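quick q for whoever's on today - can somebody do inverse folding on this one?? i tried earlier but teh output was garbage lol. tokens:
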């Protein structure tokens, strides 16, 4: 159902390597770029995650309660995504682990403070 998610950034060039690394773990790459204000990552015709400088010219801020969930193919991939996030300047918001029956997840923030998680259902 989700086509894409856009997160704000104040420094696209600083934030982009974080998402390059995360996208690579999911078999994705940069799919669209527009100057120094927008980059989107995806893997084919499916959903994308993008970073953009706010249209109104004001500073990007982190949305309280906003989180992007990235569907992993295994618990091991959840672990790798979390490790990749931390190795690329992200911060831990909850280490990989079983959260409830059938839901394994890890939580982290990107270099701008946006909250994401990698999860596996099964």
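ok took a stab at it. sequence:
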């Amino acid at each position: 159902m989700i086509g894409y998610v856009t997160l704000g950034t104040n420094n696209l060039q600083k934030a982009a390597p974080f998402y390059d690394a995360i996208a690579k773990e999911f078999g994705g790459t940069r799919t669209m770029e527009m100057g120094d204000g927008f980059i989107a990552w995806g893997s084919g015709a499916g959903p994308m995650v993008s970073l953009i400088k706010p249209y109104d010219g004001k500073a990007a801020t982190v949305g309280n309660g906003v989180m992007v969930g990235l569907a992993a193919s295994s618990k091991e991939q959840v672990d790798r995504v979390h490790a990749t996030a931390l190795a690329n300047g992200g911060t831990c918001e909850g280490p990989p682990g079983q959260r409830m029956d059938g839901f394994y997840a890890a939580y982290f923030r990107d270099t701008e403070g946006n909250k994401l998680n990698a999860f596996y259902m099964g």
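fwiw The radius of gyration is 14 Å. also Residues 12-25 form the longest helix (14 residues). so keep that in mind when u check it
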